[in-house]
Design brief:
- The complex is a heterodimer of chains A (555) and B (497).
- With 555 residues, chain A is of the alpha+beta class.
- Chain A folds into 4 domains: 67 residues, Phenylalanyl-tRNA Synthetase, Chain B, domain 1 (2-Layer Sandwich); 194 residues, 3-Layer(bba) Sandwich (Phenylalanyl-tRNA Synthetase, Chain B, domain 3); 69 residues, Phenylalanyl-tRNA Synthetase, Chain B, domain 1 (2-Layer Sandwich), CATH 3.30.56.10; 184 residues, 2-Layer Sandwich (BirA Bifunctional Protein, domain 2).
- Helices cover 28% and strands 29% of the residues of chain A.
- Chain A contains 16 helices and 29 strands.
- In chain B, the strands form 5 sheets. In chain B, strands 11-15-16-20-19-18-17 form a 7-stranded mixed sheet, with helices on both faces. In chain B, strands 2-8-3-7 form a 4-stranded antiparallel sheet.
- Chain B is α+β, with helices and mostly antiparallel strands and 497 residues long.
- The longest helix of chain B is centred in the middle third of the chain and has 15 residues.
- Chain B is flat, with a radius of gyration of 40 Å.
- Chain B is 36% helix and 26% strand.
- Chain B starts with a strand and ends in a 5-residue tail after the last helix.
- Classes of the chains: A alpha+beta (555), B alpha+beta (497).
- Chains A and B meet through α8, α10, α11, α12 and β20 of A and α12, β11, β12, β13 and β15 of B.
Chain lengths: 555, 497
């Protein structure tokens, strides 16, 4: 979840009042936001926000929300707006390079302090990293509008044929040089899939390059403290996501007194106006909201709570017409309105209730039933239960314990080689456990009941979990007969029929190893561990082991 | 006067007397493992005096033990020279024994008159002139039992120390001497009655136990340690949670560890470009390389596709992107137990039903004190008519109470597949408010494609990172200890209920 760091001074200046840590925390109980830190010494606060509320990534969004909760301001924020200021033309050929752009101009913004500019740029970077999927899906360009002559063109041109001074550089470079020689260029060049070396560009009426998205802006339009008028472009691969982003940025600037100018974005096949001039509507029945919330709220109460959440609504009888601003992308279904009412009303104010009429019968899964019985018997036989990881490595499973390699489930993105496959047997884990405990007093009797994963192409997910039990008995003198006696005790006392047949398999000694059949089904293996394996593991006493699949009737 | 002694004490007393009333404990011909305890008891009864003296002993070093087995360097040199006719060039000897041993052998050999070196134009020759290696006998003697330092010739000892063949250790020596009383008891001038320690079958059957004196035990003494067969404390805690949920009427469900993204994400209405689905948040399966076979679920797959794309008949707008079947059938390791709930719900549960799952989930985290690549989740679902947020919180509060937490608070939260979503916090006596569960009502985009009559039928769901709760309960501060590889910890661990 993203963390938003803000300057307390700037935050409380824009909010219009100062709040203590307790006051702020209790207000946030009505939201999904957590106050992570409140540090007057550093003059900073940190908020943790959720992925569905990226409007709160900007400090201005948080302030807008808190003003609603304290009822300083209610309902939809109404920022002054002028429509269709000019056009942004999108060419046919840029659609293959980076298909979508939306844009806006915001004039008369209060960005006088260094802090205000920093917070804007931090919000931009947070969006790039989350919603923007590291700029692939969404990338934002912020420009000083006074340096720009509209209209604007979004075009793709050959990388060698265009040049400009990129932000933070002093000399003009070709687009190719920008991609190959600047830090940002090297970091993000892979995001441009360029048939014929075309790069996406935002240009003004003079043909000046304003930006090479998603890489870098031009030095020409650099923001400096005191900038009043901004041009914002958002480009990307997902029109919904970039439109939402533009709404977040323009509404944040609206909170700073900006006047929003919508633009016409002219695609070859259609024209759209961005940002959206009107809020979306969602019609919800009051009855549905009450059903979800579980409290007898009337439509007026619901409307009041929605206005505190900075939405708006009007009631026509039992029907609520809810207005949703563009910077909220979390309304897919009426249930999302119900949640807004419930949380703003306050979950802890709703009270809770355990429904007594939901009569159902509880039961253990058959796999756990058998496991529990087996655990009881193993404990009765004097074995200590252990718990090992399912994820492990091939060398742990095979070479290190003298087992012959066989196919196991492998992951494509292991964090470390030690955790890169799923175990196909419990035996290696128990042997390594004994190896880690050679200093502990013998006899050592340990067992594990757990899942192994067996590759099986006939299964829906090409693999199958098997619940097994394995036991290891290590002592100065212990052998096949001892472990067999315990296996027999386990099976005799749980109604299983056990039979053995001669077998040869690592890590066991030839001639002292057997296949185990339970109720006539091949189910496992038993034997004395080969001393070569023991010594390699640093174990100097004999070890006898068994492992069997538990017979479970599921369903 | 009469003295009561155990059989062992009597044995020791007689043995000591037969050796003139004074001897080292180690020299007595009695059960060595018990003799010290008997001696102490006799001292307490005033029958013997016990004197402890510290003495230094000479023992063999590891190197000396190896030399005894493989031969001392000078012995190896003698053997090599014998093979070569009693005379060899040094350069020819290099192959016969390791460089550093050869140097030792030449030095020692000259010092002890075993060889002589002769230089000529062709090089230096070693010539065998003696065969005695006095160290062997000495080392063998030390090897059979440690020799008191005082019994060794100081110059030989110095020599052995210089060669790193012996070490000195200090040992406590116990010497026993009969007191007057002890002597009288041993000679029979004071009556000794034999006490019985353990009752035996024989003593009982013969009635002998009535005639003998049964020794009174020191009940304040510690008994020998016993390690019982025992459940793993964490598994036992999971069993407790299982028992609570079964008690609340929940039936346990399962799902496979290797799972299709469809069940882990798509069916939960988690968009295919949701960050949780990226490689750093779930494990992709490389082998088996074929995707899941979802042909048995093709109707559901189609409804899920439409719901993602435009909302289908759910009343939702959907996510508005082109849904990919190839992504849905990709295999991953189960990253949330909600996959088990989803499979169970999709199988068509009757209303009402209550289900739960306790199982491992897998995430590509870098393991440290608070992160594990595999950990347990506990998930519960209540499927019933006319459920709402207050009922959800009611179940959470009851579950928390069963786990031993009295105070509970709720906070709005975001989870992709629940709406409203609620986080539950409980008050812990020393840790304060801790987050215990994420929860919510399953979204219509999840329930309606599975065939449930939403909003009449609702599903309350919650998930708990049960490992964290177990750590608090078991007093652990490192999540890796839940899979402890330390047998002594497990043997000592208390089972907490």
């Amino acid at each position: 979840m993203p963390i938003v760091t803000v300057s307390m001074k700037e935050f409380f200046r824009l909010l219009g009042e100062e709040l203590s840590e307790d006051e702020l925390s209790s207000l946030l109980e009505y939201t999904k936001v957590n106050l992570e830190s409140y540090d007057p010494d550093e003059g900073e606060m940190e908020f943790e926000i959720t992925a569905d509320r990226m409007d709160l990534v900007a400090m201005e969004g948080l302030i807008r929300l808190i003003k609603g909760l304290t009822e300083r301001e209610l309902g939809l924020p109404r920022y002054p707006m002028e429509r269709r200021a000019f056009q942004v033309r999108v060419t046919e050929r840029v659609s293959k390079v980076r298909p979508y752009v939306v844009a806006a101009v915001v004039r008369g913004v209060d960005l006088t302090t260094e802090e205000s500019l920093i917070s804007l740029i931090e919000a931009q970077e947070k969006i790039h990293d989350t919603l923007g999927r590291k700029r692939r899906r969404v990338s934002i360009g912020l420009h000083d509008f006074s340096k720009i002559v509209p209209p604007i063109t979004y075009d793709a041109r050959p990388a060698d044929e265009v040049s400009f001074v990129p932000l933070g550089e002093y000399a003009e470079m070709t687009a190719r040089e920008v991609l190959e020689q600047t830090d940002k260029g090297r970091e993000y060049a892979h995001l441009i899939e360029n048939p014929g070396n075309l790069v996406p560009l935002i240009l003004d009426a003079r043909g000046e390059i304003l930006s090479l998205p998603p890489i870098i802006n031009s030095e020409l339009t650099r923001l400096t403290p005191g900038v009043r008028d901004l041009f914002i472009d958002v480009t990307g691969t997902d029109l919904r996501a970039i439109s939402y982003t533009l709404e977040i940025i323009t509404s944040a600037l609206g909170e700073r007194g900006g006047r929003i100018h919508t633009l016409e974005v002219v695609y070859p096949d259609r024209t759209i106006e961005t940002p959206k001039p009107e809020p979306d509507q969602l019609v919800v029945s009051g009855d549905f909201v009450r059903r979800m919330v579980g409290a007898p709220l009337d439509p007026d109460e619901m409307i009041h709570q929605l206005r505190r959440a900075r939405l708006d609504a009007s009631a026509e009888g039992e029907l609520l017409r809810v207005l949703i601003p563009g910077f909220r992308a979390d309304f897919l279904h009426p249930v999302d309105v119900a949640e807004e009412v419930a949380t703003t009303y306050g979950l802890n104010n709703l009270g809770y209730e355990l429904p007594l009429n939901v009569m159902t019968v509880g039961r253990r899964h058959p796999r756990e039933k058998v496991s529990s019985l087996v655990r009881t018997l193993m404990i009765g036989l004097g074995y200590q239960e252990v718990l090992n990881y399912v994820m492990t490595s091939k060398s742990f499973l095979f070479a290190s314990v003298g087992r012959r390699e066989r196919p196991v489930v492998e992951v494509a993105n292991p964090v470390s080689e030690n955790y890169s496959v799923l175990r196909d047997s419990l035996i290696p884990g128990l042997l390594h456990f004994l190896s880690a405990n050679t200093h502990a007093k013998y006899p050592q009797r340990v067992f594990e009941v757990g899942d192994v994963v067996v590759v099986d192409e006939t299964e829906e997910t090409r693999a199958r979990d098997e619940r097994r039990v394995a036991a290891a008995y290590a002592d100065y003198s212990v052998g096949f007969e001892d472990i067999y006696s315990h296996l027999k005790a386990l099976t005799d006392n749980s109604g299983m029929e056990v039979s053995l047949s001669p077998h040869s398999e690592g890590p066991f000694l030839d001639g002292r190893c057997a296949r185990v059949a339970i109720d006539g089904q091949d189910s496992g293996v038993m034997g004395e561990v080969n001393p070569d394996v023991l010594l390699r593991l640093g174990i100097t006493v004999p070890v006898a082991m068994f492992e069997i699949r538990l017979p479970i009737k599921e369903g | 006067m009469e003295i009561s002694l155990s059989k062992g004490e009597i044995e020791l007393l007689i043995e000591l007397h037969s050796r003139g009333g004074r001897a080292r404990l180690d020299d007595l011909g009695v059960d060595k493992s018990r003799a010290a305890a008997w001696a102490n008891l006799l001292r307490e009864k005033g029958l013997v005096d016990v004197r402890e003296t510290k003495r230094r002993y000479v023992i063999l070093s590891d190197r000396a033990r190896r030399h005894l087995k493989e031969g001392l360097p000078e012995e190896k040199l003698i053997r090599a020279l014998n093979r070569m006719g009693g005379r060899a060039k040094l350069s020819d000897l290099r192959g016969s024994l390791p460089e550093e041993e050869l140097n030792v052998a030449l030095g020692e050999g000259r010092r002890k008159g075993i060889i002589r070196l002769e230089r000529s134009d062709e090089g230096t020759y070693a010539i065998l002139i003696g065969k005695e290696v006095p160290e062997r006998a000495i080392l063998e003697r030390i090897s059979s039992s440690p020799v008191p330092e005082s019994e060794m010739d100081p110059s030989i000892l110095r020599d052995l120390k210089r060669r790193g063949l012996v070490e000195l250790v200090e040992r406590t020596e116990v010497e026993l001497e009969l007191t007057d009383l002890g002597r009288k008891a041993a000679e029979g001038s004071i009556k000794v009655v034999e006490e019985v320690g353990k009752l035996t079958r024989d003593l009982i059957l013969t009635g002998e136990w009535k005639r003998r004196r049964l020794k009174a035990y020191d009940v304040s003494a510690s008994p020998p340690v016993t390690y019982p067969g025992k459940p793993h404390p964490y598994v036992q805690f999971l069993e407790e949670v299982r028992e609570i949920l079964i008690g609340m009427g929940f039936a346990e469900v399962k799902s496979p560890i290797v799972e299709a993204e469809f069940w882990n994400f798509d069916v939960l209405f988690q968009a295919q470009d949701h960050p949780a689905r990226e490689v750093h948040d779930s494990y992709q399966v490389a082998y088996p390389s074929r995707g899941a076979d979802l042909s048995r679920h093709s109707d559901l797959v189609e409804r899920v596709r439409q719901t993602h794309e435009h909302g289908w008949k759910t009343g939702s707008r959907g996510w508005g992107y082109e849904w990919s079947f190839d992504i849905a059938r990709r295999l991953i390791l189960r990253s949330q137990t909600t996959a088990a709930s989803a499979r169970s719900l999709a199988s068509g549960l009757k209303v009402p039903s209550k289900i739960f799952a306790i199982d491992k989930v897998f995430r590509p985290e870098t393991p440290d004190r608070t992160h594990a690549i595999e950990f347990h989740q506990c998930e519960g679902v209540v499927l019933a008519e006319n459920m709402n947020v207050r009922h959800l919180m009611g179940f959470l509060a009851e579950f928390a109470k069963q786990l031993g937490f009295r105070e509970v608070r709720f906070k709005p939260a975001y989870f992709p597949f629940t709406e409203p979503s609620v986080e539950a916090y409980v008050k812990h006596e020393s840790l304060g408010w801790i987050e215990i569960a994420g929860s919510g009502l399953f979204r219509p985009e999840m329930l309606i494609p599975m065939g449930y009559d939403y909003p009449k039928v609702q599903a309350l769901a919650w998930g708990i990172g049960i490992g964290r709760l177990a750590m608090i309960r078991l007093g652990l501060d490192d999540i890796r200890e839940l899979h402890s590889q330390n047998l002594e910890y497990l043997r000592r661990a208390k089972l907490v209920w």
